[in-house]
Protein backbone atom coordinates (compact mmCIF):
# COMPACT_ATOMS: atom_id res chain seq x y z
CA UNK A 1 0.00 0.00 0.00
CA UNK A 2 1.12 3.64 -0.60
CA UNK A 3 4.04 2.54 -2.80
CA UNK A 4 2.90 4.36 -5.91
CA UNK A 5 2.08 7.47 -3.91
CA UNK A 6 5.44 7.38 -2.17
CA UNK A 7 7.20 7.19 -5.52
CA UNK A 8 5.26 10.10 -6.90
CA UNK A 9 5.55 12.34 -3.86
CA UNK A 10 9.21 11.73 -3.23
CA UNK A 11 9.91 12.55 -6.88
CA UNK A 12 8.03 15.85 -6.68
CA UNK A 13 9.42 16.88 -3.30
CA UNK A 14 12.93 15.80 -4.10
CA UNK A 15 12.99 18.24 -6.98
CA UNK A 16 11.80 21.01 -4.67
CA UNK A 17 14.44 20.38 -2.02
CA UNK A 18 17.24 20.65 -4.54
CA UNK A 19 16.30 24.16 -5.62
CA UNK A 20 17.91 27.18 -3.99
CA UNK A 21 15.00 29.57 -4.21
CA UNK A 22 11.33 28.95 -4.71
CA UNK A 23 8.75 31.25 -6.17
CA UNK A 24 5.09 31.01 -5.37
CA UNK A 25 4.62 29.67 -8.88
CA UNK A 26 7.11 26.87 -8.18
CA UNK A 27 5.21 25.87 -5.07
CA UNK A 28 1.90 26.10 -6.90
CA UNK A 29 3.21 23.88 -9.69
CA UNK A 30 4.54 21.30 -7.24
CA UNK A 31 1.23 21.33 -5.38
CA UNK A 32 -0.65 20.71 -8.61
CA UNK A 33 1.47 17.60 -9.02
CA UNK A 34 0.93 16.56 -5.40
CA UNK A 35 -2.81 16.98 -5.90
CA UNK A 36 -2.72 14.78 -8.97
CA UNK A 37 -0.72 12.16 -7.07
CA UNK A 38 -3.24 12.18 -4.21
CA UNK A 39 -6.17 11.79 -6.58
CA UNK A 40 -4.44 8.92 -8.33
CA UNK A 41 -4.00 7.32 -4.91
CA UNK A 42 -7.81 7.52 -4.65
CA UNK A 43 -7.89 10.24 -2.01
CA UNK A 44 -11.31 11.91 -1.84
CA UNK A 45 -11.42 15.04 -3.98
CA UNK A 46 -12.40 17.39 -1.16
CA UNK A 47 -9.71 15.99 1.08
CA UNK A 48 -7.03 16.45 -1.59
CA UNK A 49 -8.20 19.99 -2.29
CA UNK A 50 -8.20 21.03 1.35
CA UNK A 51 -4.81 19.47 1.83
CA UNK A 52 -3.29 21.42 -1.06
CA UNK A 53 -4.89 24.69 0.03
CA UNK A 54 -3.48 24.31 3.52
CA UNK A 55 -0.01 23.50 2.32
CA UNK A 56 -0.01 26.45 -0.08
CA UNK A 57 -1.28 28.82 2.56
CA UNK A 58 1.46 27.78 4.96
CA UNK A 59 4.17 27.71 2.35
CA UNK A 60 3.86 31.34 1.24
CA UNK A 61 7.11 33.21 1.88
CA UNK A 62 8.79 30.02 2.98
CA UNK A 63 12.30 31.19 2.02
CA UNK A 64 13.05 33.20 5.12
CA UNK A 65 14.31 30.56 7.52
CA UNK A 66 18.02 30.14 7.30
CA UNK A 67 20.00 26.89 7.26
CA UNK A 68 17.32 24.92 5.45
CA UNK A 69 16.23 25.31 1.85
CA UNK A 70 12.75 26.55 1.01
CA UNK A 71 12.07 23.18 -0.58
CA UNK A 72 12.90 21.45 2.67
CA UNK A 73 10.48 23.75 4.45
CA UNK A 74 7.79 22.74 1.99
CA UNK A 75 8.51 19.07 2.67
CA UNK A 76 8.05 19.69 6.37
CA UNK A 77 4.77 21.50 5.75
CA UNK A 78 3.54 18.68 3.50
CA UNK A 79 4.52 16.22 6.21
CA UNK A 80 2.68 18.15 8.93
CA UNK A 81 -0.45 18.50 6.84
CA UNK A 82 -0.32 14.80 5.99
CA UNK A 83 -0.15 13.97 9.68
CA UNK A 84 -3.11 16.30 10.32
CA UNK A 85 -5.07 14.67 7.51
CA UNK A 86 -4.39 11.22 8.95
CA UNK A 87 -5.66 12.28 12.35
CA UNK A 88 -2.69 13.80 14.23
CA UNK A 89 -2.42 11.45 17.20
CA UNK A 90 -2.43 7.69 17.25
CA UNK A 91 -5.55 6.35 18.94
CA UNK A 92 -6.24 2.90 20.24
CA UNK A 93 -9.17 0.93 21.52
CA UNK A 94 -10.27 2.09 24.94
CA UNK A 95 -10.97 -0.41 27.68
CA UNK A 96 -11.63 2.26 30.27
CA UNK A 97 -15.03 1.06 31.41
CA UNK A 98 -16.50 -1.39 33.88
CA UNK A 99 -15.67 -5.02 33.09
CA UNK A 100 -16.78 -6.80 31.06
CA UNK A 101 -16.22 -4.04 28.48
CA UNK A 102 -18.51 -4.63 25.49
CA UNK A 103 -17.00 -3.94 22.07
CA UNK A 104 -19.19 -4.14 19.01
CA UNK A 105 -17.59 -5.11 15.70
CA UNK A 106 -19.56 -3.95 12.67
CA UNK A 107 -18.98 -3.89 8.92
CA UNK A 108 -19.79 -5.44 5.60
CA UNK A 109 -19.36 -9.13 4.94
CA UNK A 110 -15.89 -9.93 3.63
CA UNK A 111 -14.35 -6.78 5.12
CA UNK A 112 -12.29 -8.91 7.52
CA UNK A 113 -14.58 -8.38 10.48
CA UNK A 114 -14.36 -11.85 11.98
CA UNK A 115 -10.62 -12.08 11.41
CA UNK A 116 -10.13 -8.65 13.01
CA UNK A 117 -12.27 -9.68 15.98
CA UNK A 118 -9.98 -12.66 16.54
CA UNK A 119 -6.86 -10.52 16.07
CA UNK A 120 -8.04 -7.98 18.64
CA UNK A 121 -8.97 -10.76 21.06
CA UNK A 122 -5.58 -12.35 20.52
CA UNK A 123 -3.83 -9.05 21.23
CA UNK A 124 -5.84 -8.27 24.37
CA UNK A 125 -5.22 -11.79 25.64
CA UNK A 126 -1.53 -12.11 24.93
CA UNK A 127 -0.21 -8.58 25.05
CA UNK A 128 -2.52 -6.93 27.56
CA UNK A 129 -3.27 -10.03 29.64
CA UNK A 130 -7.01 -9.49 29.51
CA UNK A 131 -9.60 -12.21 29.79
CA UNK A 132 -11.57 -12.04 26.55
CA UNK A 133 -14.81 -13.61 25.40
CA UNK A 134 -15.87 -13.55 21.75
CA UNK A 135 -19.40 -14.11 20.43
CA UNK A 136 -20.75 -14.24 16.90
CA UNK A 137 -24.14 -12.62 16.42
CA UNK A 138 -24.48 -13.78 12.81
CA UNK A 139 -27.71 -15.75 13.15
CA UNK A 140 -28.19 -16.14 9.43
CA UNK A 141 -24.87 -17.73 8.65
CA UNK A 142 -24.03 -20.73 10.84
CA UNK A 143 -20.71 -20.88 9.00
CA UNK A 144 -19.78 -17.47 10.43
CA UNK A 145 -20.42 -18.73 13.97
CA UNK A 146 -18.36 -21.83 13.27
CA UNK A 147 -15.58 -19.63 11.84
CA UNK A 148 -15.37 -17.59 15.04
CA UNK A 149 -15.39 -20.74 17.16
CA UNK A 150 -12.50 -22.11 15.09
CA UNK A 151 -10.58 -18.86 15.39
CA UNK A 152 -11.21 -18.98 19.14
CA UNK A 153 -9.66 -22.43 19.35
CA UNK A 154 -6.70 -21.33 17.25
CA UNK A 155 -6.03 -18.17 19.25
CA UNK A 156 -6.83 -19.71 22.61
CA UNK A 157 -9.64 -17.20 23.21
CA UNK A 158 -12.98 -18.28 24.69
CA UNK A 159 -16.06 -18.10 22.49
CA UNK A 160 -19.66 -18.10 23.62
CA UNK A 161 -21.25 -21.55 23.09
CA UNK A 162 -23.56 -21.56 20.08
CA UNK A 163 -27.26 -21.92 20.90
CA UNK A 164 -29.30 -22.31 17.71
CA UNK A 165 -32.48 -20.26 17.26
CA UNK A 166 -31.50 -17.19 19.30
CA UNK A 167 -31.74 -13.66 17.93
CA UNK A 168 -28.73 -11.38 17.70
CA UNK A 169 -29.92 -9.40 20.70
CA UNK A 170 -30.47 -12.56 22.75
CA UNK A 171 -26.97 -13.76 21.93
CA UNK A 172 -25.51 -10.36 22.82
CA UNK A 173 -27.29 -10.37 26.19
CA UNK A 174 -26.18 -13.92 26.86
CA UNK A 175 -22.59 -12.96 25.99
CA UNK A 176 -22.66 -10.07 28.46
CA UNK A 177 -24.12 -12.29 31.14
CA UNK A 178 -21.47 -14.95 30.50
CA UNK A 179 -18.88 -12.19 30.57
CA UNK A 180 -20.06 -11.03 33.99
CA UNK A 181 -20.38 -14.50 35.48
CA UNK A 182 -17.06 -15.67 34.02
CA UNK A 183 -15.10 -12.65 35.20
CA UNK A 184 -14.15 -11.56 31.70
CA UNK A 185 -12.53 -8.17 31.06
CA UNK A 186 -13.71 -7.73 27.49
CA UNK A 187 -16.60 -9.11 25.42
CA UNK A 188 -16.13 -8.80 21.67
CA UNK A 189 -19.39 -9.00 19.74
CA UNK A 190 -18.98 -9.89 16.07
CA UNK A 191 -22.18 -8.71 14.40
CA UNK A 192 -23.56 -10.05 11.14
CA UNK A 193 -22.36 -8.49 7.91
CA UNK A 194 -24.07 -8.15 4.54
CA UNK A 195 -22.48 -7.79 1.17
CA UNK A 196 -24.06 -4.37 0.79
CA UNK A 197 -25.44 -1.81 3.17
CA UNK A 198 -29.07 -2.46 3.91
CA UNK A 199 -31.60 -1.20 6.38
CA UNK A 200 -32.35 -4.57 7.93
CA UNK A 201 -28.68 -4.99 8.80
CA UNK A 202 -28.47 -1.53 10.33
CA UNK A 203 -31.67 -2.02 12.29
CA UNK A 204 -30.43 -5.29 13.72
CA UNK A 205 -27.06 -3.87 14.73
CA UNK A 206 -28.74 -0.79 16.19
CA UNK A 207 -30.92 -3.05 18.31
CA UNK A 208 -27.88 -4.92 19.59
CA UNK A 209 -26.21 -1.62 20.33
CA UNK A 210 -29.16 -0.47 22.42
CA UNK A 211 -29.17 -3.78 24.28
CA UNK A 212 -25.53 -3.83 25.36
CA UNK A 213 -24.47 -0.17 25.23
CA UNK A 214 -21.00 -0.95 23.86
CA UNK A 215 -17.94 0.99 25.00
CA UNK A 216 -16.57 0.94 21.45
CA UNK A 217 -18.30 0.43 18.12
CA UNK A 218 -15.54 -0.51 15.70
CA UNK A 219 -16.22 -0.42 12.01
CA UNK A 220 -14.14 -2.86 10.00
CA UNK A 221 -13.48 -1.71 6.44
CA UNK A 222 -11.42 -3.12 3.61
CA UNK A 223 -8.71 -0.68 2.50
CA UNK A 224 -8.58 -2.32 -0.94
CA UNK A 225 -12.06 -1.02 -1.71
CA UNK A 226 -10.75 2.56 -1.59
CA UNK A 227 -13.41 5.25 -1.45
CA UNK A 228 -16.13 2.61 -1.03
CA UNK A 229 -14.63 1.87 2.37
CA UNK A 230 -14.95 5.54 3.28
CA UNK A 231 -18.55 5.71 2.06
CA UNK A 232 -19.37 2.56 4.04
CA UNK A 233 -17.78 4.01 7.15
CA UNK A 234 -19.80 7.17 6.85
CA UNK A 235 -23.03 5.23 6.41
CA UNK A 236 -22.35 3.05 9.46
CA UNK A 237 -21.42 6.08 11.48
CA UNK A 238 -24.60 7.93 10.56
CA UNK A 239 -26.74 4.91 11.38
CA UNK A 240 -24.97 3.66 14.49
CA UNK A 241 -22.32 6.09 15.65
CA UNK A 242 -18.95 4.39 15.43
CA UNK A 243 -16.05 5.16 17.76
CA UNK A 244 -13.23 3.97 15.58
CA UNK A 245 -12.21 2.19 12.44
CA UNK A 246 -10.25 -0.98 11.81
CA UNK A 247 -8.88 -0.79 8.29
CA UNK A 248 -7.96 -4.21 6.90
CA UNK A 249 -5.72 -5.39 4.07
CA UNK A 250 -3.22 -2.57 4.33
CA UNK A 251 -0.72 -5.24 3.31
CA UNK A 252 -2.50 -5.48 -0.05
CA UNK A 253 -1.64 -3.74 -3.25
CA UNK A 254 -4.12 -0.90 -2.87
CA UNK A 255 -3.59 2.75 -3.58
CA UNK A 256 -4.10 3.95 -0.03
CA UNK A 257 -6.99 6.32 -0.62
CA UNK A 258 -9.13 4.81 2.13
CA UNK A 259 -6.43 5.17 4.75
CA UNK A 260 -5.70 8.71 3.62
CA UNK A 261 -9.26 10.02 3.43
CA UNK A 262 -10.97 8.05 6.19
CA UNK A 263 -10.28 10.44 9.04
CA UNK A 264 -10.89 13.61 7.08
CA UNK A 265 -14.19 12.39 5.61
CA UNK A 266 -15.68 10.54 8.58
CA UNK A 267 -14.02 12.39 11.45
CA UNK A 268 -13.43 8.98 13.03
CA UNK A 269 -9.97 7.75 13.95
CA UNK A 270 -8.47 4.65 12.37
CA UNK A 271 -7.58 2.76 15.54
CA UNK A 272 -6.05 -0.36 14.07
CA UNK A 273 -4.97 -1.67 10.70
CA UNK A 274 -4.88 -5.23 9.45
CA UNK A 275 -1.65 -6.08 7.69
CA UNK A 276 -2.01 -9.78 6.93
CA UNK A 277 -3.97 -12.93 7.64
CA UNK A 278 -2.13 -14.03 10.77
CA UNK A 279 -3.48 -13.25 14.23
CA UNK A 280 -0.66 -10.87 15.05
CA UNK A 281 -0.95 -9.01 11.72
CA UNK A 282 -2.59 -6.05 13.42
CA UNK A 283 -0.90 -2.65 13.83
CA UNK A 284 -1.67 0.59 15.51
CA UNK A 285 -2.35 3.42 13.08
CA UNK A 286 0.19 6.09 13.89
CA UNK A 287 -0.24 9.17 11.64
CA UNK A 288 3.38 10.29 12.22
CA UNK A 289 4.79 6.97 11.19
CA UNK A 290 2.48 6.59 8.21
CA UNK A 291 3.29 10.11 7.00
CA UNK A 292 6.99 9.35 7.26
CA UNK A 293 6.48 6.15 5.36
CA UNK A 294 4.48 7.84 2.64
CA UNK A 295 6.89 10.73 2.14
CA UNK A 296 10.03 8.72 2.79
CA UNK A 297 11.65 11.98 3.92
CA UNK A 298 11.95 11.65 7.65
CA UNK A 299 15.48 13.05 7.58
CA UNK A 300 14.38 16.28 5.91
CA UNK A 301 11.53 16.67 8.37
CA UNK A 302 13.92 16.17 11.29
CA UNK A 303 16.36 18.68 9.82
CA UNK A 304 13.72 21.39 9.51
CA UNK A 305 12.43 20.71 13.00
CA UNK A 306 15.93 21.14 14.35
CA UNK A 307 16.54 24.34 12.40
CA UNK A 308 13.26 25.82 13.56
CA UNK A 309 14.09 24.98 17.15
CA UNK A 310 17.51 26.59 16.92
CA UNK A 311 16.15 29.77 15.35
CA UNK A 312 13.67 29.99 18.14
CA UNK A 313 16.42 29.52 20.69
CA UNK A 314 18.66 32.08 18.99
CA UNK A 315 16.01 34.76 18.95
CA UNK A 316 15.03 34.07 22.48
CA UNK A 317 18.63 34.37 23.52
CA UNK A 318 19.16 37.71 21.80
CA UNK A 319 16.10 39.17 23.40
CA UNK A 320 17.14 37.74 26.73
CA UNK A 321 20.47 39.48 26.36
CA UNK A 322 18.85 42.87 25.83
CA UNK A 323 16.59 42.30 28.73
CA UNK A 324 19.39 41.25 30.96
CA UNK A 325 20.98 44.60 30.29
CA UNK A 326 17.69 46.24 31.19
CA UNK A 327 17.42 47.71 27.71
CA UNK A 328 14.63 47.72 25.27
CA UNK A 329 14.94 50.97 23.41
CA UNK A 330 13.41 52.15 20.18
CA UNK A 331 16.24 50.61 18.18
CA UNK A 332 15.21 47.26 19.58
CA UNK A 333 11.63 48.02 18.77
CA UNK A 334 12.55 48.78 15.19
CA UNK A 335 14.39 45.52 14.90
CA UNK A 336 11.42 43.67 16.29
CA UNK A 337 9.11 45.44 13.87
CA UNK A 338 11.37 44.50 10.98
CA UNK A 339 11.26 40.89 12.01
CA UNK A 340 7.54 40.92 12.34
CA UNK A 341 7.17 42.55 8.99
CA UNK A 342 9.23 39.77 7.46
CA UNK A 343 7.15 37.22 9.26
CA UNK A 344 3.88 38.86 8.38
CA UNK A 345 4.08 37.36 4.93
CA UNK A 346 4.99 33.92 6.10
CA UNK A 347 2.44 32.98 8.66
CA UNK A 348 2.94 29.35 7.79
CA UNK A 349 6.59 29.17 8.66
CA UNK A 350 5.94 31.10 11.83
CA UNK A 351 4.02 28.30 13.34
CA UNK A 352 7.28 26.37 13.39
CA UNK A 353 8.79 28.95 15.69
CA UNK A 354 6.76 29.07 18.84
CA UNK A 355 8.46 32.06 20.42
CA UNK A 356 8.08 34.33 17.45
CA UNK A 357 4.64 33.08 16.57
CA UNK A 358 3.45 33.90 20.03
CA UNK A 359 4.99 37.34 19.98
CA UNK A 360 3.07 38.11 16.86
CA UNK A 361 -0.11 36.81 18.44
CA UNK A 362 0.49 39.06 21.40
CA UNK A 363 0.68 42.06 19.13
CA UNK A 364 -2.07 41.02 16.79
CA UNK A 365 -4.41 43.48 18.43
CA UNK A 366 -2.21 46.27 17.11
CA UNK A 367 -3.51 45.54 13.63
CA UNK A 368 -0.28 44.53 11.99
CA UNK A 369 -0.11 45.32 8.36
CA UNK A 370 2.62 46.17 5.95
CA UNK A 371 1.96 49.92 5.77
CA UNK A 372 1.83 50.18 9.55
CA UNK A 373 5.23 48.54 9.87
CA UNK A 374 6.66 50.97 7.35
CA UNK A 375 5.10 53.97 9.06
CA UNK A 376 6.44 52.93 12.41
CA UNK A 377 9.91 52.31 11.03
CA UNK A 378 9.83 55.76 9.39
CA UNK A 379 8.91 57.35 12.72
CA UNK A 380 11.85 55.72 14.44
CA UNK A 381 14.16 56.66 11.56
CA UNK A 382 13.20 60.31 12.02
CA UNK A 383 14.46 60.32 15.60
CA UNK A 384 17.94 61.20 16.68
CA UNK A 385 20.18 58.54 18.16
CA UNK A 386 19.73 60.01 21.59
CA UNK A 387 15.96 60.00 21.25
CA UNK A 388 15.92 56.37 20.18
CA UNK A 389 17.92 55.39 23.19
CA UNK A 390 15.93 57.53 25.57
CA UNK A 391 12.31 58.05 24.52
CA UNK A 392 11.72 60.24 27.59
CA UNK A 393 13.36 63.09 25.67
CA UNK A 394 10.38 63.16 23.35
CA UNK A 395 8.35 66.23 24.34
CA UNK A 396 5.74 67.94 22.17
CA UNK A 397 8.08 69.93 19.90
CA UNK A 398 10.28 66.94 19.15
CA UNK A 399 7.23 64.83 18.40
CA UNK A 400 6.02 67.45 15.95
CA UNK A 401 9.39 67.41 14.20
CA UNK A 402 9.41 63.61 14.01
CA UNK A 403 5.86 63.46 12.67
CA UNK A 404 6.72 65.95 9.96
CA UNK A 405 9.95 64.12 9.12
CA UNK A 406 8.22 60.79 8.77
CA UNK A 407 5.11 62.06 7.03
CA UNK A 408 2.89 61.00 9.93
CA UNK A 409 0.90 62.70 12.67
CA UNK A 410 1.87 63.39 16.27
CA UNK A 411 -0.89 60.98 17.15
CA UNK A 412 0.99 58.20 15.29
CA UNK A 413 4.19 59.06 17.16
CA UNK A 414 2.30 58.80 20.44
CA UNK A 415 0.86 55.44 19.47
CA UNK A 416 4.29 54.09 18.68
CA UNK A 417 5.69 55.35 21.99
CA UNK A 418 2.81 53.78 23.85
CA UNK A 419 3.41 50.46 22.12
CA UNK A 420 7.09 50.68 22.99
CA UNK A 421 6.29 51.37 26.62
CA UNK A 422 3.97 48.41 26.77
CA UNK A 423 6.52 46.12 25.19
CA UNK A 424 9.27 47.35 27.48
CA UNK A 425 7.04 46.75 30.49
CA UNK A 426 6.13 43.33 29.25
CA UNK A 427 9.76 42.49 28.70
CA UNK A 428 10.72 43.73 32.11
CA UNK A 429 8.12 41.46 33.58
CA UNK A 430 9.25 38.52 31.51
CA UNK A 431 12.84 39.37 32.38
CA UNK A 432 12.17 38.45 35.95
CA UNK A 433 11.40 34.99 34.68
CA UNK A 434 14.50 34.94 32.48
CA UNK A 435 16.68 33.78 35.33
CA UNK A 436 15.33 30.31 34.70
CA UNK A 437 17.49 30.31 31.58
CA UNK A 438 14.58 30.52 29.20
CA UNK A 439 14.53 33.56 26.98
CA UNK A 440 11.68 36.00 27.42
CA UNK A 441 10.35 35.39 23.95
CA UNK A 442 10.32 31.67 24.52
CA UNK A 443 7.85 32.20 27.28
CA UNK A 444 5.56 34.52 25.39
P1 LIG B 1 -15.80 -11.00 7.39
O1 LIG B 1 -16.78 -11.58 6.42
O2 LIG B 1 -15.87 -9.51 7.38
O3 LIG B 1 -15.91 -11.56 8.75
O4 LIG B 1 -14.36 -11.34 6.78
P2 LIG B 1 -13.30 -12.40 7.28
O5 LIG B 1 -12.80 -12.03 8.60
O6 LIG B 1 -13.86 -13.77 7.11
O7 LIG B 1 -12.12 -12.15 6.26
C1 LIG B 1 -12.21 -12.44 4.88
C2 LIG B 1 -10.84 -12.78 4.34
O8 LIG B 1 -9.97 -11.68 4.43
C3 LIG B 1 -10.16 -13.90 5.11
O9 LIG B 1 -9.55 -14.77 4.19
C4 LIG B 1 -9.09 -13.18 5.93
O10 LIG B 1 -7.98 -14.00 6.16
C5 LIG B 1 -8.74 -12.02 5.04
N1 LIG B 1 -8.22 -10.88 5.79
C6 LIG B 1 -8.78 -10.22 6.83
N2 LIG B 1 -8.01 -9.19 7.24
C7 LIG B 1 -6.94 -9.19 6.43
C8 LIG B 1 -5.74 -8.35 6.34
O11 LIG B 1 -5.55 -7.37 7.09
N3 LIG B 1 -4.85 -8.67 5.37
C9 LIG B 1 -5.05 -9.71 4.52
N4 LIG B 1 -4.12 -9.94 3.60
N5 LIG B 1 -6.13 -10.49 4.57
C10 LIG B 1 -7.06 -10.26 5.51
UniProtKB/TrEMBL annotation:
Designated name of the protein: Signal recognition particle protein
Membrane topology: Peripheral membrane protein
This protein's domain notes: Composed of three domains: the N-terminal N domain, which is responsible for interactions with the ribosome, the central G domain, which binds GTP, and the C-terminal M domain, which binds the RNA and the signal sequence of the RNC.
Organism: Hansschlegelia beijingensis
SUPFAM superfamilies: P-loop containing nucleoside triphosphate hydrolases (SSF52540), Signal peptide-binding domain (SSF47446)
Residue ranges crossing the lipid bilayer per the database entry: none
Cellular compartments annotated: Cell inner membrane; Cytoplasm
Gene: ffh
UniProt-annotated binding residues for GTP: 107-114, 190-194, 248-251
Chain's role: Involved in targeting and insertion of nascent membrane proteins into the cytoplasmic membrane. Binds to the hydrophobic signal sequence of the ribosome-nascent chain (RNC) as it emerges from the ribosomes. The SRP-RNC complex is then targeted to the cytoplasmic membrane where it interacts with the SRP receptor FtsY. Interaction with FtsY leads to the transfer of the RNC complex to the Sec translocase for insertion into the membrane, the hydrolysis of GTP by both Ffh and FtsY, and the dissociation of the SRP-FtsY complex into the individual components.
Alphabetical UniProt keywords: Cytoplasm, GTP-binding, Hydrolase, Nucleotide-binding, Ribonucleoprotein, RNA-binding, Signal recognition particle
Family: Belongs to the GTP-binding SRP family. SRP54 subfamily.
SMART domains: AAA, SRP54, SRP54_N
Catalytic activity, as annotated: GTP + H2O = GDP + phosphate + H(+)
Top-rank EC class of the record's enzyme: hydrolase
Cellular component GO terms, alphabetical: plasma membrane; signal recognition particle
Residue span, SRP54-type proteins GTP-binding domain: 269-282
Amino acid sequence: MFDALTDRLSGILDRLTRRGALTEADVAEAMREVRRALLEADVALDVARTFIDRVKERAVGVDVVKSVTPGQMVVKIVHDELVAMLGADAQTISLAAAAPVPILMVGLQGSGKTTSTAKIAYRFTNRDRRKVLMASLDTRRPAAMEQLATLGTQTGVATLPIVPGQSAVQIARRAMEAGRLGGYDVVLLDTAGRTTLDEALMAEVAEVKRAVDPHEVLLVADALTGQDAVVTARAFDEALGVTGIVLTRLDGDGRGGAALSMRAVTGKPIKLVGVGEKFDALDEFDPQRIANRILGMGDVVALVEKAAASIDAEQAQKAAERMRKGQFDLNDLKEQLGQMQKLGGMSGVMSLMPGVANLKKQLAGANLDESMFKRQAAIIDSMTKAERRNPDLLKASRKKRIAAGSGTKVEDVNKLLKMHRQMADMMKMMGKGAKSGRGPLAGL
